[in-house]
Amino acid sequence: MSGALRALVVDDDRAVRSALKINLTKAGYEVFLASNATEALELLKSNPFDILLTDVKMPGLTGLELLAQVRTHWPDTRVVVMTGFGSVKDAVSAMQAGASDYVIKPIEKEELLLILDRALQTRAMQRELVRLRREVDEKYGFTNIIGVSPAMREGYEQVQI
């Protein structure tokens, strides 16, 4: 991956956005800020992001609604959901909806960086898995089997179903 990792921080609290920007910038991220989910969606339309950190409770669309949009339209972007009011139910909902992690604010810088690193490592492993599956299919798929008799072609068709 060329250049700095790109992070989008979405939180209606200016102090939280500022603190996260400072910490993530020091850690080498290129950081973009949005004060609500609508702003975040506009940024996502024109910028690829590696990771998105979103608060749960915000005016307008919630962080979980933003998460659903990101999973649908930008599935390669990892999403970490943050909240100041944690509950097991919310955490389960976020993880079931596709969040990489769920954290309760305030979070220590080192812990957050570990969570982001783990989310990005998972993405890298998923990308590698897709690449390897494609490579195996290209090398060992049915299209590479030699055999043109009607019985062989019928066998290929039955196996591919």
Folded structure, characterized:
The protein is α/β, with parallel strands linked by helices. It has 6 helices and 5 strands. A 5-stranded parallel β-sheet has the order 2-1-3-4-5, sandwiched between helices. Helix 2 (37-46) packs parallel to helix 3 (63-73). It is elongated. The two termini are 38 Å apart. The relative contact order is 0.11.
Brief digest:
The chain has 161 residues and is of the alpha/beta class. The protein has helices at 14-26, 37-46, 63-73, 88-96, 109-140, 150-160, and strands spanning 6-10, 30-34, 51-55, 78-83, 101-104. Helices cover 53% and strands 16% of the residues.
List SSEs in N-to-C order.
Answer: EHEHEHEHEHH
Helix content: 40-55%
Give the rounded overall mean pLDDT. 84
Largest sheet: 5 strands, parallel
The rounded Rg comes to 21 Å
Kindly list the characteristics that best describe this protein.
five-stranded parallel β-sheet; 161 residues; elongated; 6 helices; alpha/beta
